[in-house]
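Same chain as my last thread, 270 residues:
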Amino acid sequence: MKFGKKILALGLMGVLALSVLTGCGSTGGTVSTDGSTSMEKVIGALKETFESENKSISVTYNPTGSGSGITAVAEGRCDIGLSSRDLKDEETAQGLEGTVLAYDGIAIIVNPENPVADLDVETIGRIFTGEITNWSDVGGADAEIVLIGREAGSGTRDGFESITGTKDSCKYRQELTSTGDVITTVAGNPAAVGYASLASLKDSVKALTVGGVAPSDETIKDGSYPVQRNFVLVTKKDKTLSPSAQKFFDYITSEEAAEVIKNAGAVPVK
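reply #2:
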């Protein structure tokens, strides 16, 4: 009788051990994301809806910037990296893979008191390289233009400078570490101009039209708004995601998530 009980107890212990080894990741756990501050609103909305349907899974978001998020994936410090630019050749050579989650416009923002309403891409480039230094030269007040940008490694900065042809030649007064900081700084200075993710815009700043085209879901999707980029999910090709991370990845890239992405201010791929 005692022998039978021992066998039964050992059997139960074996089942429990097997369930810990095979079942834990599929029913619960933590999914870590790291990267673009421009994607904060989109990822926050997706995280909220996903967690409401998957109570045992927690999704974390570390807003470090695109470059840092890409590095975190490469070094195995997070499950999914978030980048507001496409991967570079040297990054894909490290075994990283990018999946486009959504499209986002980069809005050229000024203080609401600024009377300037429209600039073309060429003029924007001339302003940010210091060739044009006074707002009166582009139809504004007689005031020195204050250039606000993002830090090196920012996906928003990379996208903006690539599109405007100003790579490594912008004369920034300030280089800030988040989209929110850029918006706050421009909102507080009538002479400032900066750039920020359309998905993160607030009423405290004014988005200029570019070449007569306003940034919107429609103009980003049809390509008529010229200053736009991709929101990209970054993973490692040779590393299988945990069951929880794969479940989150599958959800945010599904048609089911498209409405959530749209409501968060970005343009869904699907």
